[in-house]
């Protein structure tokens, strides 16, 4: 079994995080083309788009089991190949009955990669004996920014969605070829369990991830709506809230490992959750666009290192093996992205969107207290 040098593994893990962010971000500018091509209305498109998240949720536990049996390298190679094979289909399928299954497969490939790359990251970070998880997660965000930019630039030349998808697929394939030899090939011991329901401290870690991802999902799905409909910001400017959040999160994750090394995990999570909650409250309560954008950025700063710390803790806890704990935490966290926007919608319908977002801020503050307690004890039962 060939194991690359530690430095090569670290670089290859960064590439592993970059690839799914890079590829899935390409889908965002392709959505309007798919809507026109399939003739879907808004409600129909919303239902079809659920296939993307459903595929990811279904694939994550399976990916953990496959990684235990086959090793991370094989699963990440297969996931990447499936992503790149499906992406051009999303630019071609003319019918909603085909778009839904294509998104289901695409989401499954992204979800499998997401789960397995975190299993690899836990091993690489443990062997390095220093914080690295925030930096790894930063490369997912960087991939998202680069992917969306590249696809948008290609589409801007008038070459169409298929060319944009193929260009992104070729770049991602090249990156995969360069990195794959340093992806981990090791497997779980023979006879080890390959699937288990989360239990003990793993459930608590998953809850913290759920809340943090819920806040991220709130920014993705509700930020622009809030700024336009509640604060009266012009629709053309409403997207700047998510831009401020995303850029702040990416920048903070790039320096996050150093922050965690100096402050420790518990203070980092507690401070992050507090800053994030205050930032979201400011974004909701501030009367103008400028102060609201500051609030969005503070939320990005606050949320940036919570999930990376939780994944590190999931790899260190002793209640479940890492190859079982990481898929469980990933699935619980991703459920926050999917369920969160719907929950916010229900609260907004019953009360107001401002109330719903302030409730998210309060929940984030409470999750930070739980996360800090987990970080202080490092391992648990």
Descriptive notes:
The protein has 381 residues and is mainly alpha-helical. It has two domains: 6-182, MFS general substrate transporter like domains (Growth Hormone, Chain: A, Up-down Bundle); 201-377, Growth Hormone, Chain: A, CATH 1.20.1250.20. The protein has helices at 6-38, 42-70, 72-90, 96-128, 133-156, 161-179, 201-230, 240-263, 265-285, 289-303, 306-316, 322-350, 353-377. Helix 7 runs antiparallel to helix 11 and helix 8 packs antiparallel against helix 9 (265-285). The model has no long low-confidence stretch (mean pLDDT 87). Its main location: membrane. It is a multi-pass membrane protein. This is MFS transporter. The chain crosses the membrane at residues 12-31, 43-68, 75-93, 99-124, 136-156, 162-180, 192-215, 235-256, 268-287, 293-313, 325-347, 353-372. InterPro entries: MFS, MFS_trans_sf, MFS_Transporter.
């Amino acid at each position: 079994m060939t194991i690359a040098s530690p430095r090569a593994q670290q670089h290859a893990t960064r590439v592993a995080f970059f690839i799914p962010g890079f590829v899935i971000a390409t889908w965002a500018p392709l959505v309007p083309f798919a809507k026109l091509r399939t003739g879907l209305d808004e409600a129909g498109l919303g239902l079809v788009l659920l296939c993307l998240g459903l595929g990811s949720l279904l694939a994550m536990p399976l990916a953990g089991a496959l990684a235990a049996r086959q090793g991370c390298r094989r699963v990440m190679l297969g996931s990447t190949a499936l992503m790149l094979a499906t992406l051009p289909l999303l630019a071609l399928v003319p019918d909603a009955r085909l778009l839904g299954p294509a998104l289901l497969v695409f989401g499954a490939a992204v979800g499998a990669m997401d789960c397995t790359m975190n299993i690899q990251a836990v091993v690489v970070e443990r062997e390095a004996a220093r914080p690295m998880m925030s930096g790894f997660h930063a490369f997912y965000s960087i991939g998202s920014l680069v992917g969306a930019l590249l696809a948008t630039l290609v589409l801007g030349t008038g070459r169409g969605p298929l060319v944009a998808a193929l260009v992104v697929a070729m770049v991602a394939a090249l990156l995969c070829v360069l990195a794959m030899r340093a992806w981990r090939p090791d497997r779980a011991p023979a006879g080890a369990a390959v699937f288990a329901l989360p239990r003990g401290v793993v459930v608590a870690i998953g809850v913290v991830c759920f809340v943090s991802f819920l806040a991220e999902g709130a920014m993705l799905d509700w930020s622009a709506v809030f700024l336009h409909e509640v604060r009266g910001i012009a629709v053309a400017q409403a997207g700047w809230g998510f831009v401020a959040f995303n850029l702040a999160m990416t920048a903070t994750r790039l320096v996050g490992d150093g922050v965690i090394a100096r402050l420790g995990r518990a203070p980092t999570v507690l401070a992050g959750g507090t800053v994030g909650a205050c930032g979201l409250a400011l974004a909701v309560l501030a009367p103008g666009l400028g102060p609201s954008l500051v609030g969005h950025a503070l939320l990005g700063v606050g949320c940036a290192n919570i999930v990376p710390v939780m994944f590190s803790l999931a790899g260190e806890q002793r209640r479940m093996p890492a190859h079982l704990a990481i898929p469980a935490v990933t699935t619980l966290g991703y459920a926050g992205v999917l369920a969160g926007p719907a929950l916010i919608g229900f609260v907004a319908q019953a009360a107001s969107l401002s109330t719903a977002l302030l409730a998210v801020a309060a929940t984030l503050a409470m999750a930070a207290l739980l996360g800090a307690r987990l970080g202080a004890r490092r391992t648990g039962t």
